[in-house]
Amino acid sequence: MSTRLTDEQVQEALDDCAAEPIHIPGLVQPYGALIAFSPQSEEILFASENSEAVIGRAASTLLSASFAEEFGREIIHAVRNVAGNPYFTKQSLPLGAFEFNGRLLELHAFGNEANFIVEFEAERDVEFGTAQALDAIGLMIETLKECKSQDELFDLTVGLLRHLTGYDRVMIYKFDQDYNGEVVSEEKRARMESLMGLRFPSFDIPPQARAIMAKLPVRFIEDVEQEPARLLAAY
Prior knowledge:
Blueprint: H1 7-19, E1 27-28, E2 32-37, E3 44-48, H2 51-55, H3 59-62, H4 67-71, H5 73-82, E4 93-100, E5 103-111, E6 116-122, H6 131-144, H7 150-165, E7 169-175, E8 181-188, E9 199-200, H8 207-215, E10 229-233
Antiparallel strand pairs: 1-10, 2-3, 2-6, 3-10, 4-5, 5-6, 7-8, 8-9
């Protein structure tokens, strides 16, 4: 029996892919927790189900509560301060490190008129403000200045980023004018299969996914085997 799809079935699959609401988050990576609250009332509207594991407070008790009462005026002031930054609606901005349950968590925030969103993540072993990280960044900048071609620039970038972050794999994607993609540079662990030169057609990445890439050109997955945490809503 043939498994070949008709033109109509292919188009239906592409339309379904393009309609997938991936730009509306329903899950978060489990290494961090996410809380969203109303800028006007400060009522908590969304909380990730792993909030108890990360920050010691169950989502069921956070939902509909006051963000300021739950997390204190220092943090709410920090959020409102960065909300005045023009990049607040475009990217996650750092709030600083705060202690929860005896450990430091790094907080970042972003948002819009409907929601202020705060991310809680465990402090990393290497911070970009440390001498070690600054030395690595300085080396990266000086090394990149010596690049004579785009390919050399890409290869040095992925190598230095992997050295700085310790990730298993770092890749650079390139898209043509029709949004067909290709992996043009890669640095990885030796045991991993190479994805260098992998090509994929434009319909593999629908418009809403490309829009996310334009806003967040650098993204990472901490553990490909992880179980994501659901976002729970107050209503």
